[in-house]
Structures are given as C-alpha cells and as structure tokens.
C-alpha cells in the first residue's frame, strides 16, 4: 500500500529545484576506529540528493523532493527533517512494510582521515521507486531538476524512473542537473557506463570528478582540469563543475567561460557530504544568476563548512553565514567578531 503525503508549501511560485533520490539515516561514530570497538553513534538524516536540496533550501530557494520512505520511525525522522528545512515533501510516498535505508560510517580506519561506509539498503523503500511515483507536475513546475548517478543504480525500476524524470523535464524545458556520483558498491563500471553517459548527455549542468569522468569518456581525461572541461563539454552540457578534491578545489565551465576556485584549508572532521555541498552551493549560485566564479566560490565554501563536523548537511550555511564566510575568505580569514 502506498500512501502519499499531503504536506506542501503554500506558495504558488515556481519551484527552484526539485530533486529525486534516496534518503537514508546515517549513524556516525563519535570516535575513530573499527566499528567493532565503537560504542556511541550520532544519528543524522542523509542521502546525496536530500543533502543537496536542504543546502539549496537554506540559501533561500524553494525546493521539492521526490522519494519513497517507509512508515518506520527512522523514515518519519527523515520526513520531519526535510519538512523542518523548508523542503516541499508532497512528492514523497510512504510504503507499508518497508523501511528507509541506513548506513554506518567507519571513520579514520584503516586509513587516517578517510571514512568508509557500510550500507543496509538492499530492501529499502526507495529501491521500489518507479515511473509511477513521479509527480510530473512538480517536475514541470521547476526551474531545475536534480538527480545523481546513485538513484539509477538502486534497481531497474529506479533506473527507469530516473530516465523518465529526465524525459519529463526535457519535454517541459526544465534545466537538468546531473551529478555522476558513481558508487562501486552499487554497480560495476560496465553496468553504470551506458546509463551515466545517457544521463550526462541529457543534462544542462553536469557535476563530476576525474574518476567519474574516466567512466563517461571511456578513458582517462587530461590532468589539466581546463583541458578536461573541454573534453567533457563534448558530451553536450553547457555547464560543467569538475570536483578536483580537497587539495585542488573546483574547476567550472559555463557557456564557454571557465573558472577555478581553490579550496579553503579547514579542519577535517568528516568528508562525507562534501561533494553534495558543492552541488548545493553551485546550484544556488546558478539560480541567483551569479557569475561562474562566484558560483564556484559559493560551492567551495559550502563544501569546506560541511567537512568541519559530523553529518552530511548540518554545517551547510544559510545566506547570512555564507556572506560572512565569503567576506572573511577575501580578507584571508583575518576576522574579529568582537
């Protein structure tokens, strides 16, 4: 039995971004080391697309989310979190007899400053998403549809649903934002490549990284990020964000213009969610009509803030804190709060 939620925002304005994906609950240990010796965990709402949509909502844009949850307590926690962040949840379905997905983080072991994750999502409600679960009007009434390469990897019906969502968006001339977000724990490169290429070619805004770019191009792309952007542009997207990692930052291309943004040096607590923060920050800049350079700088700011604490989205800024960060960055973080 599928039950549709009746909660929605009352504004009749166009939705800025609708995202589609799987939300999960994250259990993040309060200490580093192998999980067999960890005793205390924090609970966080998580999931790539929901992280993105929360980040965009915090920066003042109208957002909506399409997914499927169970009716268990952890699913209710996710739903409450999204609603509390101002996300329109009328596109979320709740499914009897299924739970939300869960993942557990293992931090700092066996490699220092790296996190691994263990998933418990093989029978989550979101794996049963299908084209019938799409709210076509919600997609058509949006400025941007955002989706990642995680969702089509969950199941055959999720892949069909993802491609149908792109078809609806394209037919309504809604901009498509696609983050490749390849996950080897979900599917092989051979299985992923055709779908990722198809989705990248349909996208207006492509967000990827060197490893995923190799999958898209079928070969290693140029080590020079600017030249790599030229290669990726041949797939068709007019705007590309190239995520180069904590040490190299971001490179971007939009309608022929190119720019880079160096990362800020911040204390690293947990890197999970950093890539989603890049997406949220960049799309917020894009929606605001900011320059490519400023959009990349906003994305860099959101990513840096996210890694400074446990949890995927908790440290994402609102508009006021974003402006404080960008101002401080321009002054080399020489700030006096007295």
Q: Short summary of the structure?
A:
The protein is α/β, with parallel strands linked by helices.
Care to describe what's here?
- The chain is an alpha/beta fold and 338 residues long.
- The protein has a single domain, classed as 3-Layer(aba) Sandwich (UDP-N-acetylmuramoyl-L-alanine:D-glutamate ligase).
- The strands form 2 sheets. Strands 1-6-5-2-9-10-11-12-13-14 form a 10-stranded mixed beta sheet, with helices on both faces. A 4-stranded mixed beta sheet has the order 4-3-7-8.
- The chain has helices at residues 48-58, 73-84, 136-140, 156-171, 189-202, 210-217, 225-233, 274-288, 292-306, 319-330; strands at residues 2-4, 15-20, 24-29, 41-46, 63-69, 87-95, 101-107, 115-120, 142-148, 175-179, 205-208, 239-243, 250-254, 257-261.
- Residues 1-11 have low confidence and may be disordered.
- Helix 1 (48-58) packs across helix 8 and helix 8 runs antiparallel to helix 9 (292-306).
- The radius of gyration is 19 Å and the shape is globular.
